[in-house]
User: Fold these one by one.
Assistant:
Number 1:
Amino acid sequence: MERKSILSVKDLTISFNTFEGEVNAVRGVTFDLEEGETLALVGESGSGKSVSTKAITQLLPKRNTTISKGEIWYHDQDLLKTSSKDMKKIRGKDIAMIFQDPMTSLNPTLTVGRQIAEPLIEHQAMSKQAAKTEAISLMKKVGIIGAEQRFQQYPHQFSGGMRQRVMIAIALACHPKILIADEPTTALDVTIQAQIIDLLKELQAEFDTSTIFITHDLGVVANIADRVAVMYAGRIVEIGTVDEIFYNPKHPYTWGLLASMPTMKMEREDLYTIPGSPPNLLNVPTGDPFASRNMYALEIDFQEEPQMFKVSDTHYAATWLLHPNAPEIEVPDEIKRRNERFATILATKGE
Ligand SMILES: Nc1ncnc2c1ncn2[C@@H]1O[C@H](COP(=O)(O)OP(=O)(O)OP(=O)(O)O)[C@@H](O)[C@H]1O
Ligand SMILES: [Mg+2]
């Protein structure tokens, strides 16, 4: 099916000026978000997931951030060149965000109701009364029981899961075109996590929101994503449909990542461990930054960073193993076995 892109990130390159030097956090990230899809961003801690997505709505600290290259197209504007005044209008109305810890995003001194109603008044030009009615209906929609009473309450009177529901209500209040969810369930316990994921799935179907979903839980990815982008050391190293990434991964990093990540339901023992650790982004090594951890690394991996090789129209991976002259290497059995657990999730998806 031919799909239209709603957001187009091109060659995004971001560094931070720190005491130790220049941290090369994002090194040429390119991807499209298609209309109505959920794109999952995965990768070890520090791979640049949050930084890449924060750039979209200009949430990076001005003080020490340098965006040296790149474009982020939303309709006919480059969001990197949008004034902070215009970005304020886009944020919340067109592009909404949910983060891991709702307590830091909510204002502790304002009632929850007011915080849900505010964007409706600001972006939708609703009257105070209309905004209140709409806010209460949103609270009900995200599963907050006793919404009329709870409208008057403050964030600290809500549990973690309920606060995240409030954040979702705020995010969806203005029917944004794009939702960026950065580990929205990480801080919650497992049962609540599952409820929030189901809620997000439902709302996404209802509003047809295009979503970027960052998570460390590959069970969640298998469950909700249409496509997956795998990040490593500030780059996307593999991107494809959820089936391509889970059933036919091409990058050795993706093999290891899939086998090493716990799922919501899976016991943690028997997980694979990728040897070594991600490179220091102050001093990105020559060649493929994954080379020193890659048991299939070729000589060229230590000399030149691979560009994306095409696997299918929707599937690309940046590994020299895809070069026509590279030796043919199969996904190791040990890795395959651990990745089989995703098959049931993929098979029962959408039921
Ligand atoms: N404000 C900042 N100043 C300096 N370095 C930063 C800043 N923000 C992020 N970084 C660095 O940029 C790199 C990418 O960070 P980012 O937060 O995007 O990782 P992530 O993939 O979201 O990881 P996690 O899974 O832990 O959330 C890391 O090395 C991080 O330390
Ligand atoms: Mg992050």
Note: The first strand starts at residue 5 and ends at 18.
Number 2:
Amino acid sequence: MQSLGKESEAIIKKDQRYLWHNITPYSEQSPPMIAASASGSWVTDIDGNKYLDGMSGLWCVNVGYGRKELAEAAYNQLLSLPYFPLTQSHMPAIALAEKLNEWLEGEYVIFFSNSGSEANEAAFKIVRQYHQQTGQHYRSKFIARYRGYHGSSLGALSATGQAQRKYKYEPLAAGFLHVAPPDSYRRPEGMTVEAFNLQCAQAVEETIIWEGAETVAAVIMEPVITGGGVIVPEQVYLDRVQEICRNYGVLLIMDEVICGFGRSGRKFGHQNFGIKPDIVTMAKGLTSAYLPLSATAVRKDIYEAFKDNSDGYGHFRHVNTFGGNPAACALALRNLEVLEQEQLVERAAILGQRLHSGLSGLLGHKLVGDIRSFGLIAGIELVADKGSKQPADLDIVKGIIAECKAKGLIIGKNGDTVAGFNNVLTLAPPLSSTDEDIQFIIDTVTAVLNGGWGA
Ligand SMILES: Cc1ncc(COP(=O)(O)O)c(C=O)c1O
């Protein structure tokens, strides 16, 4: 890596003086990487160093960097109509909502916001109001999973099952409950993966019964827990959760903020399991993060319950100024076209398999307890001891990430989640990555791990 010149030192000083970074502790010694430009899967910093972005930013630049067609779609829309509130309507929002229905393979009505957190907040309010308006006045509680993340705002953080993200911000919103996720790697000895997954699904039913089914409004989950450590369920788990929700009149919200838009090898993550959620929340890959936009897709018949406004409170009294911005919608539409035209959803499945098999040789490494993947997402769980499965120290996890970066590869980890369990290296490169990009990831991670870690 090139050393810092005087100019970049001055920029870093200004960064440290003026910028408050997301979730990253302040450190004078290790200043942030300051990106200057990017193309494809590669990002260049202000010193001219190039890195393969093995995390697509924050799991979001699905079509890769430097897409002129996306910039043009936004530019043209900004010239013709830069803004109009969705209290009324505009063409890009209508077209995108129609397109999302096609992608969802169901009948949904779309509410636009700006971020994944907001999409989930909207879902929670819609669910509570829906139950009120259909005479189920006590249904207010939400069940989520430990280790899952659903956002940073108070409601979405309440749904989040990561204690370390909550410390010092509690008390949060009331009415959010958590159950254990199907972490098959850590299942009881002697139990089959299938039996363990069923047992985890059963925890959802028990919680519903113990709370009183008439008080439970919805279950929220990602199809696969991503940022919480790449925890992949078996088919039986999601089948059973869906069945339980239906049996007890509890709505099922799928948080597709990361798994959506081809990341899983299907258009949406839940489509891999053939389930039909009542509500789907999405953000990140919707615009490949070129502009902020998120959406809450609500089953049409749920939306119908909002049509009777005879008491003056029947409509959804929720507004956000920027949600569904015309330029963001036009860009999102173009983003979906790119995903379709270049068959990037299918490519994600192929690259994901290649990445998984390329990394699988590492299973013999002393530190590697498990390797899990879902489409073009991979998680490498590092342990101090394979017998006890004791998680590896955070210093080791951080050291491996730093060495990958020194070799030009950005990888991630499940950071600040659950105490002691921030031990999963994560990979989610752009869906447009070349074969060489994927090989570079495999070679670099392998070389770093085999370069003395765990020796
Ligand atoms: C699964 C999931 N849901 C919701 C969110 C929140 O999205 P945002 O950061 O856009 O508010 C995230 C963000 O990482 C996420 O991973």
Note: Residues 147 and 228 are 5 Å apart (CA to CA).
Number 3:
Amino acid sequence: MSYKNKQVLFANRPHGWVQESDFKIVENDVPAIKDGELLVKNLYLSLDPYMRGRMSNAKSYATGMQIGDVMVGGTVGTVIESRNPEYKEGDLVLGYFGWQLYGVSNGRGLNKLPQHESVSPSLYLNALGMPAITAWVGLSQIGDPKPGETVVVSAASGAVGSIVGQLAKLKGCRAVGIAGGKAKCDYVVNELGFDACVDYKAGHLKEDLAEATPDGIDVYFENVGGEILDAVLERLNAFARIPLCGFVSQYNVTSSDSYCVKNFAALLTNRVKLQGFIVGEFAELWSQALQELGDLVMSGQLKYRESVADGLDNAPKAFIGMLKGENFGKQLVKLA
Ligand SMILES: NC(=O)c1ccc[n+]([C@@H]2O[C@H](COP(=O)([O-])OP(=O)(O)OC[C@H]3O[C@@H](n4cnc5c(N)ncnc54)[C@H](OP(=O)(O)O)[C@@H]3O)[C@@H](O)[C@H]2O)c1
């Protein structure tokens, strides 16, 4: 059987904010699979902030994309043809096929997923996938929160941040979110159960953060950087820990516009441990993390939310929107 593929290609290296014109959508035929290969129809595509880094040629932990490449990305899909004995038609797989409707693989790098009627496949890109594992790894391995401590997380309503605060609560901490807008902050407190959430767009970040953290800050899970980091640095307690997960407020600024942190000295005066981390480099912990996260999701103790764009054509717009905070929860694209 022959299939028509649709792909989103990386068409132009952005300088500053990504534009929809930096992407190109093409259609082509899916090649026939050979012995040892399988064909996957992708159901969901994950849109993640790290993809902005791959569009840059600046030095990083991963090589950037080349113009003309299919945009990279995690996917969940169904095997629709297989000439690989390890996979059969109907298997659900987690892959890294990128922004396209179909993917051909020899099986390497794919993960077979359990299929439960009550679990949407999209969950394997969200609370049962990379973002949640990122929260788990950063908090447990670097943040190391103790009961009674105050844990602050930025981008608190998002895929990673929402899990960080809920895990902190489960560890007996005071969980404080920072998010953009009243609706997101209400969700973080009322639905996710954080103790407080600071709306950084309200105009009085320092005052609101001080009120939300009367005992200072012991762990700051950093997702955004910029002015928010500076405000947090002023509230750190001695021996605070900072898992440095992301810097999303700076991903689209040019080097001349990048924010210069002013309160850097607080790291010394408070003897702070700050460690950047990349979740992929903690592969040995993924199964433990997934086991714990799975139990919490299944028992209803871990809540999550999705923003789902409809169709691959809408992926560029949804991606840019996510970098601007227009998503509310994990940003996905429904492909089929
Ligand atoms: N180190 C790793 O291995 C790893 C793995 C996964 C993710 N990450 C990082 O984790 C962070 C969160 O990723 P995610 O997938 O969970 O995305 P997300 O939080 O679901 O979405 C991104 C959020 O960033 C916030 N944001 C955007 N611009 C901002 C600004 N100027 N100031 C403050 N907040 C801003 C927006 O929330 P508001 O509306 O609240 O502003 C937006 O919703 C990112 O920095 C990402 O790069 C790192």
Note: The domain at 130-280 is CATH 3.40.50.720 (Rossmann fold).
Number 4:
Amino acid sequence: MSQTNVVSVPRPTAVRIPLREIVPWAVFTTVLALLVLLFVTTEAGAVSLVSDGLVHEFVHDGRHLLAFPCH
Ligand SMILES: [Zn+2]
């Protein structure tokens, strides 16, 4: 006589996140990404927002990694 073990595995349920909870984080992330993109792409020379070059030096490797002209 053979014995079968039946194991019940619960099915995963989808987590529903309301859109009104996602929108503020999506806007925040987009603004932050655009700010980083602005600093990496245009923070140099005549269009520099910070005059001492601190931001440019901070994102300098990122500029070269993304092949933006630097010097
Ligand atoms: Zn450079």
Note: The chain has three helices and no strands.
